[in-house]
Design goal:
477 residues, alpha/beta, six-stranded mixed β-sheet, globular
Length: 477
């Protein structure tokens, strides 16, 4: 992916430089965004194909509307850049800065959707290690600046861009040891992957098979027994409350290890119950010692915005339960218990939010993501989701354990490297040692503030350095 960025970005700057109107500038950004997000979000049609006869007709509309909507942020960045600095090398600075500001807006407003940030393209290279300092938006800013600069004074810009990439690559190589340091307590995590296809996950003929498969994997004896056994998101077909017998059975299968599982919970007075997507930590007898409720829900997947108004339309099947879906939990929290190092739980979609990795109770020693990526299909979606989880490990300097329903389950070290995994579409389990956490990273302390300030500095420089040009108009005169 990086090679394509360094081809596309200078072309986009040339097109923007030659745009005659603000409308044309916005159109260039919007079309670029539509192409980018159509490719990046092609997996979004998969949830509609689980029940294709009922929901399949909506799949192309979902992709078109999603890509077109997200592309509006790019259109705004291009139009604003053209208005502030219509010509010259200052436009490269301006575009890089505004692009990041609008990408940050995309990541935060309306609950945010920071999927497919440009900086993620470096995840398979040492450059990804710079996210420990700059975070995903800072990494995206450097990438954009290095890319668009290639369109200006090619020999000099090649030198500048090459120097930026070379320094980041060198830093990444310097930062990564051959392997992450092990914990002193040699804590072992077992990740369970039942490989339950979404079309079969709640089928009455299959639920017992998937449940038993997870029990068998939990009880499997190996040379080094685990300290904790982790089941994926909504891994069982029942509600947490009132399922003490099942909890006891799960705990017994994992014993002497502790069990952690994704499960639904229903709370509240009769007629006013609220459904939660939860994570439960069990003791050796199956008693819940800690529970976390997912707080960052997926719009139109786990809840429907404006549900009361939309209740007149037959689109309830798009939510996990019904039109009103899940309720949101109280926010990030640290989970821990005797013998379990404190960890930050992340349920599925929550792992894509880099600015939500801090709990009020303090710093975690590891991150735990449970997910059901069966919704994402078998092409790009699960791999993109895994890449973003790996970036969270780098940013926070923490190992991340990932248990996925159909894949990809993995143990990720604090440098974002996969040390153990179960491939997509495979049933099984893995036992993996938990790495020792690194000291708090620069990004974990300051978040996106430095990247946003750097974007503003670039814009300020562009404004100060620009030459006098005829401003672009809003009409095609």
């Amino acid at each position: 992916m990086p090679i394509f960025m360094f081809i596309a970005l200078p072309i986009l700057l040339v097109l923007l430089t030659n745009a005659l109107t603000l409308r044309a500038a916005a159109l260039i950004g919007w079309l670029a965004g539509v192409g980018y997000f159509t490719l990046a979000l092609s997996w979004i049609v998969q949830p509609f194909l689980v029940d294709a006869a009922k929901d399949g007709w909506m799949a192309p509309f979902a992709l078109v509307l999603m890509a077109g909507g997200l592309a509006l942020f790019w259109a705004a960045a291009f139009a604003t850049s053209a208005f502030v600095s219509p010509k010259g090398h200052a436009l490269a600075y301006c575009l890089s800065g505004f692009w990041i500001l609008f990408e940050y807006a995309r990541s935060t407003i309306f609950t945010g959707f920071p999927w497919a940030l440009i900086g993620y393209g470096w995840i398979e290279t040492p450059i990804a290690q710079n996210a420990a300092w700059a975070g995903p938006h800072g990494l995206s800013l450097i990438t954009l600046f290095a890319g668009v600069s290639l369109a200006i004074s090619l020999p000099r810009s090649l030198l500048i861009s090459g120097l930026l990439v070379g320094v980041m690559w060198g830093f990444g190589l310097w930062r990564m040891p051959e392997s992450a340091a092990p914990r002193d307590d040699n804590f072992i995590v077992r990740l369970v992957q039942p490989n339950a296809d979404q079309s079969l996950k709640w089928d009455q003929d299959w639920v017992a098979k998937f449940y038993q498969r997870q029990l068998d994997y939990s009880a499997a004896k190996t040379a080094i027994q685990p300290d904790v056994v982790i089941w994926p998101e909504t891994s069982v077909p029942f509600i947490l409350s009132g399922s003490q017998d099942a909890m006891g059975e799960i705990a017994a299968s994992a014993r002497p290890a502790r069990a952690i599982l994704g499960i639904r919970e229903l709370l509240g007075d009769p007629g006013q119950e609220k459904l939660f997507n939860s994570l439960a930590l069990l003791d050796e007898n199956g008693t819940v010692t800690a529970r976390y409720d997912k707080h960052h829900l997926v719009p139109f997947g786990e809840y429907i915005p404006f549900a009361a108004w939309l209740s007149r339309f037959n689109i309830g099947s798009l939510t996990a339960e019904n039109l009103f879906g899940f309720s949101a939990g109280g926010g990030p929290r640290l989970m821990q218990d005797q013998g379990i190092p404190p960890f930050l739980p992340l349920i599925c979609y929550e792992a894509i939010f880099p600015n939500a990795m801090q709990a009020p109770e303090g710093r975690a020693e590891w991150l735990l993501q449970v997910t059901n990526d069966a919704w994402f299909g078998k092409l790009t979606g699960p791999y993109q989701h895994l890449a973003q989880a790996r970036m969270r490990a780098i940013e926070q300097g923490l190992p991340l354990a990932r248990s996925a329903n159909t894949g990809i389950s993995a143990m990720i070290d604090p440098y974002g490297r996969i040390t153990h995994k179960i491939d997509l579409g495979v049933a099984g389990f893995i036992d993996a040692p938990l790495a020792k956490p690194l000291p708090p990273t620069f990004y974990s302390r300051f978040g996106d503030i430095p990247a946003l300030l750097a974007a503003l500095v670039l814009i300020g420089y562009a404004v100060a350095a620009r030459r006098i040009h005829k401003p672009l108009t809003t009409t095609d005169d």
